[in-house]
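Next up, sample data:
>
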Amino acid sequence: MTALPSAVRESRDAHDAAAPVGTPSDVDARQVLDRCRALVRPALREAVGRTHPWVGEMAAYSFGWCEVGGTPADGSGGKGVRQALAVLGAEAAGAPGRTAVPGAVAVELVHAFSLLHDDIMDGDTARRRRPTVWKAYGTGPAVLAGDALFALAVETLAVAPGGPQAVRLLSGALQDLVRGQADDLLFTTRPWTGPERVRPAEYRRMAEHKTGALLGCAAALGALLGGAPPATISALDRAGRHLGIAFQVVDDLLGIWGDPAVTGKPVHGDLRERKKTFPVLAALDSPADGRLPALLESATDPGTAATLIEESGGRAAGLAAARRHIRAADTALSAVPLTPGAVTELRSLLDFLVRRDL
């Protein structure tokens, strides 16, 4: 079996070959993320500080800023992709990145809220190699903390210049996020085979809603707060949505074949949990071996299941889908006039998020 890092490099190389000259190759995406995080973090901390102290502690714990009990910690709280997309959305529209800070804070708060609730719904006990908030503080407190983060997000946007339109944009993304989460939960109840099984096209729609909607909203909010015209706002939203699908598909590939030292997840973890991920669904369209559905259902031999998924074309289909949606995101960025430097940094994030062999 081919190791995933080379598979992800395949996806990266295909993207590089299709991208315009001078896009991601000469930009360090980590530096872009660090720059945007430094711009946004003071406002994000200030927002969290406005909550009830106990709720604020749980929020700070979720961002990696403290341990249980409030002892300071120096965790990054994740890559900060959504806040970076907001900042770059404003800069791509020709505005200073600071104009996007309310939008960046809002989407980061909504993302954290969604993770707190997702972890409860999925029963996940660890995130970023630490106990999840519900595991550390209890289910009820974690729900409360998530609700507080959501309220903070709306408040942050409502008082910003252009707040009403920004809140409407965020509300639409949240409707999509809930729709995607509902579909994802319902997928678990559907059979592996037969007319009621989940199709890859359904999965792509779910991924666009659950993951892509907020990524698109982040970039679009930055553009909106930066005074961009509707066509630019729409183009950045489309780019983010395609990025979200590619991101989710690559995450699925890593969930089966990823290196645990890189992903922080056990090898074949998604197969052990019987997750209906994109490579699995694509393989079930034309399984090379009739044993595959039973192996997926039993989850007793994930190694063999992974081999059969690859032999059935699931891995190749996942890579092809990631490439296709990254090209679509790149096309959306090319469809409207944008500031070249910010577009270069946006493209560096596309590359960074789909290769994730770092």
Observations:
- Residues 230-257 form the longest helix (28 residues).
- The radius of gyration is 20 Å.
